[in-house]
Design a protein that fits this description.
It is built from 8 helices and 11 strands. It is α/β, with parallel strands linked by helices. The structure holds calcium ion.
Length: 228
Amino acid sequence: MGVMKILLVEDELKLGKAIKAGLEQDSYAVDWLTTADEGLAYAETEVYDFIILDRMLPDGKDGLDICRTVRAQGVTCPILMLTARGELSDRVDGLDSGADDYLVKPFAFEELLARLRALKRRPEAAVQQILTFGDLRIDTTQKYVTVGQQDVQLSRKEYALLEYLAHHSDQICSKDQLIEHIWDFDADILPNTVEVFIRSLRKKLDGSRSESYIETVRGFGYRLRRSS
Ligand code: CA
């Protein structure tokens, strides 16, 4: 699973900005769009772990139409609808269109996080909460990392990178793959940036170890060592 990537379509600028910032604070990567057309374009080209759709969008568009369209295209990730209207018929419309859950505005941000956590628990593959690699221990619920008895303080992006590598330790993760999953779709990230973050992660994790937790596979990318 790794870092959760979310598509957010919300035309209210203040709310959209707050949701994006809040989710990123919680280590999600968020692509935020304000129109139905843009939202649909992103939903069609990118792979997301969650999609959050406002119902009333500009030009008379309805988030439900995005929902129907992406479901028809075979997108299976959880979809959460946001709406200013809380009437029962609206809820039923939403669920009939393939949405998994419904949140009525205004809502407390904590409520949104709780709904996402609940949706995350729903799929077949249960998310493993503690990942260990030798002495390295990653608690993905608390987002807390230790090496032996030592706490390791990581920035949000460093943590996201480490968790992604941990969830994909059976494969070599290319820089492009890491950029795609850890940074936002439209952020101007160079492969160089990945190297910088890997370097700072190693500095924090490896201490005086002779072999780094993060293996460089020349020409391919990085892999977290299973045991070291
Ligand atoms: Ca709206």
